[in-house]
Amino acid sequence: MSNPKNAVDPLIAPLVLGDHTVPGIWRYMLPYEFLGLDFPSERESTCLDCPRIVSDNYRQDYRCCTYFPKVPNYMLGLAFQNDKSTRPLIKQQLKSRFLLPEGMQESARMYADFIEQVAKEEFGQGEKTLCPYLNKENGYCGIYLYRNSVCSTFFCKNNHGDKGQKFWDEITTLVMQIELALSQWSLEEIGFDYSSYISRLNKTGNQIDKTFEPQTRKWSEKTYNYLWGSDVGNELDIYRECANVIEKNRNNLWEIANSVNITESIEYEKSANKLVLKKYKDEIPPDGSLDDITVSPQDIYKDVVKKHHNMWSLPNSPLVLNSKVVLSNSTRGNKKLYEVSLKKRKVGNAIEWTCSVEKGVFESLEIFKQMIMPGFDTMEKIRSLTGEDSKIFLSEWFSKNVLVKKIPPKAS
Q1: Is 288 left (phi over 0), alpha (psi -120 to 50) or beta?
Q2: What is the Cα–Cα distance from 283 to 117, expressed in whole angstroms?
Q3: Is CB count within 10 Å lower at the N or C end of the chain?
Q4: DSSP 3-state assignment of 117?
Q5: For residue 58, what pLDDT is reported?
Q6: Collapsing DSSP states into helix, strand and coil, what is residue 74?
Q7: Given this model, what pLDDT does residue 409 score?
């Protein structure tokens, strides 16, 4: 991961949310209230010791980086200006013709390849959409402090199960929307004719199979030059100008993002979707695009808050261990192993998932083999056994459906 010595400006200094590091610009482009949310630790998502290598056959050197990220123009501009180690990487993407006015963007062929990869359950295994910023030797990201929304919010295992994933997915949508709005706004602010660019991009959809090179899958030279127009050769200058205007207006980025009427490349996206084989088309999002760009950031943030509440809330009723849960322990060598498994609904004894836990967690869950209304004594016992906040413990296992609420029978 890059670690520039001059990363003292809050705009580029990493921001810590709970146990996670995200780009510093999030301080400015998200509402102040966002920074006060409680973020789950996601302790099972250990990138350099990827759990999906075993459970889902991810490649050890690729992990979840088989995704070609859309990095906004201003983020690449900030990286280029403030971190010398990123410059060769960005220049290589310029040479490979993956840098468009809005930022780094895959070709239509790569988009179709990614859809196919997901449909065939080969995510984490294939090279076709491997991130060019991944250092295969050490597993680090070459632009870590400037990575995009998807890379900043993806956790392959969630402490709160589906509720946790929905929370992070909503944040992904929120930041993705802001990134798109600011990339378009910054181009217009520096005098770039963005509407003409989108018009040209939509026109390329008429011959979508001519927009990329079949072997390399990068944008064809003819299409690339057509899209950039007279600005070919000035790409990095434009990125730096976008970064400068973002830096200058840092204190108003949230308001700016909410004021932008995002221009969509609808015709191009429709044509790109035609490259997806018929048997994989179910993986295409309903709106035909991987980006949800029809809702304002303010409205999306309201959904973030709702999912945050849903993730952490506990019922005001007794809790009991789900009848579908199996608690097991075994000995391997001199080590005692503890596991929690959840059976699939209506599928007999088939296991939906299994996770290893510490002895204290195991013993805390055993408490709920009988229906309990968690009171002071129970909460203290959980804290003593696990060494963690008992409310966090309960909300995590309740969200995972390991603990369920039990309505006691009414007295006759």
Answers
A1: left
A2: 10
A3: C
A4: helix
A5: 86
A6: helix
A7: 62
Write the DSSP assignment of 266-301 as a string of letters: HHHHHHHHTTS-GGGGGGS-TTSSSS--SS-HHHHH
CA angle 144, 124, 133 (to 5 degrees): 30
> What letter would DSSP give residue 156?
S
What residues contact 328, with CB distance under 8 A and at least 6 apart? 338, 339, 341
Instruction: Please give the angle made by the CA atoms of 62, 103 and 154, to the nearest 5 degrees.
Output: 40
| CA of residue 320 relative to chain centroid, distance | 33
Token pair for 148: 């995009």
Hey, is 36 helix, strand or coil? helix
Per-residue pLDDT tens digits for 52-70: 888 888 888 888 888 999 9
Distance separating alpha carbons of residues 288 and 410, to the nearest angstrom: 51
Segments of the chain with pLDDT less than 70 = 1-7, 286-294, 347-348, 407-412
> Is 125 in contact with 62 (CB distance < 8 Å)?
yes
Q: Which of 39, 15, 18, 31 is nearest to 301 (CA)?
A: 31
177: which residues sit within 8 A by CB, 6+ positions away? 257, 262, 291, 292, 293, 295, 296, 297, 300
Contact 275, 111 (CB under 8 A): yes
Segment 26-29 long-range contacts (CB within 8 Å, at least 24 positions apart): 26/152, 26/175, 28/250, 28/251, 28/253, 28/254, 29/175, 29/178, 29/182, 29/253, 29/254, 29/257
